[in-house]
Amino acid sequence: MFSYRHAFHAGNHADVLKHTVLIAVLDHLLEKETALTVVDTHAGAGLYRLDGDYAGTSGEAAEGVLRLLSPEAQPDAAPVAEALARYLAVVRDFNPKGGARIYPGSPFITHHLLREQDKLKLFELHPTDARTLAANIAQLEAGRQIAVLRDDGFGSATKFLPPPSRRALVLCDPSYEIKSDYARVLDFIGAALKRFATGSYAVWHPIIPRPEAHDLPRRLKTLATKAGKPWLHATLTVKSSKIVTDAAGAQHRPGLPASGMFLINPPYTLKAQLEAALPLMAQRLAQDRHASFSLDAGA
Ligand code: SAM
């Protein structure tokens, strides 16, 4: 069950999409004075070294955040959409000496933006990642503002809903390494919406050729529509999902070709922000001519 380690993937194209959306949503929610609770159901280790062993093994950040930060990829004259510029500014905040040796995961991005009155609840089940997360968070000396729970996010995160201030963002970002994760996302979001229909929900999902992955956004739309809540679905494709045969006849599965963010009760400002940012992400993160994006919304 525990083969997935986010450190191998930190800063890849999926993180660019996920964290750009996360920051745009948080920026909007934090405009109101009332306390916000952020529940991160699958938190990961929190902070990653892009020059470390894990990230170096797969080099996924090189095709993700590092492409966006490199001066060649971003000549001065090139337009930068506000949401993408904001994401890059947050990554730069963690790398004051330039470059990107450190990549912030969702817990550190969120904490970076939160105010004193806000709370952060982090779930992480992997024993090593949970230990690393707890150690990384301890350095923030955030006291009771942040709770790290080595527990099942699907099973336990609804206990924080609704929070006393009745304002919350739930980020649901599983690794989908086991097939049942797809059904568990749907059960979790369904249960969370029943407890707290006005909360904001953000679900990351992979776009890969398997039936459960294909069905997930469609079934999330049905859940949101049945609850009478607006939704927004953004996807980013960087390459074809086709299996490639090399000159020696060996077949290679491409790495993750595409992913999506599905939001329920999104900020009304988000659609326009993503309309500007997604074409740039697709253009700058393209790995072949199949790069594309989509943006769908429903009320
Ligand atoms: N949200 C993180 C970020 O954006 O930086 C990345 C999270 S990573 C995609 C998914 C994490 O979920 C992994 O670290 C994995 O160990 C953890 N995990 C897997 N199943 C879990 C569960 N049922 N509850 C909590 N965490 C789980």
Biggest sheet architecture: 8 strands, mixed
The beta-strand count equals 12
CATH uppermost class: Alpha Beta
What is the third-level CATH name, the topology?
Rossmann fold
Total count of helical runs of at least 4 residues: 10
Global shape: globular
How many structural domains does the protein architecture include? Answer: 1
Using the CA coordinates, give the radius of gyration: 18 Å
Hetero ligands:
S-adenosylmethionine
Main sheet strand line-up: 5-4-1-6-7-11-8-12
**Broad structural category:** alpha/beta
Compressed to H and E, one letter per element, the order equals HEEHHHEHEHEHEHEHEEEEHE
Can you tell me the CATH superfamily?
Vaccinia Virus protein VP39
**Share of residues in helices:** 25-40%
Secondary-structure topology with pairs:
Elements: H1 13-29, E1 37-40, E2 47-49, H2 53-58, H3 65-69, H4 82-93, E3 102-104, H5 106-113, E4 119-123, H6 127-138, E5 146-149, H7 153-156, E6 168-172, H8 180-195, E7 200-207, H9 211-226, E8 231-237, E9 244-245, E10 251-252, E11 258-264, H10 270-285, E12 292-298
Parallel strand pairs: 1-4, 1-6, 4-5, 6-7
Antiparallel strand pairs: 2-3, 7-11, 8-11, 8-12, 9-10
Helix pairs in contact: 1-4, 1-5, 1-10, 8-9
Bound molecules: S-adenosylmethionine.
Describe the structure.
The chain is of the alpha/beta class and 299 residues long. It has one domain (6-241, 251-298): Vaccinia Virus protein VP39 (Rossmann fold, 3-Layer(aba) Sandwich). It contains 10 helices and 12 strands. It has helices spanning 13-29, 53-58, 65-69, 82-93, 106-113, 127-138, 153-156, 180-195, 211-226, 270-285, and strands spanning 37-40, 47-49, 102-104, 119-123, 146-149, 168-172, 200-207, 231-237, 244-245, 251-252, 258-264, 292-298. Strands 5-4-1-6-7-11-8-12 form an 8-stranded mixed β-sheet, with helices on both faces. Strands 2-3 form a two-stranded antiparallel ribbon. A two-stranded antiparallel sheet has the order 9-10. A hairpin with a 5-residue loop joins strand 9 (244-245) and strand 10 (251-252). The longest helix is centred in the N-terminal third of the chain and has 17 residues, at 13-29. The N and C termini lie far apart (37 Å). 43% of the residues are buried. The model has no long low-confidence stretch (mean pLDDT 93). The structure holds S-adenosylmethionine.
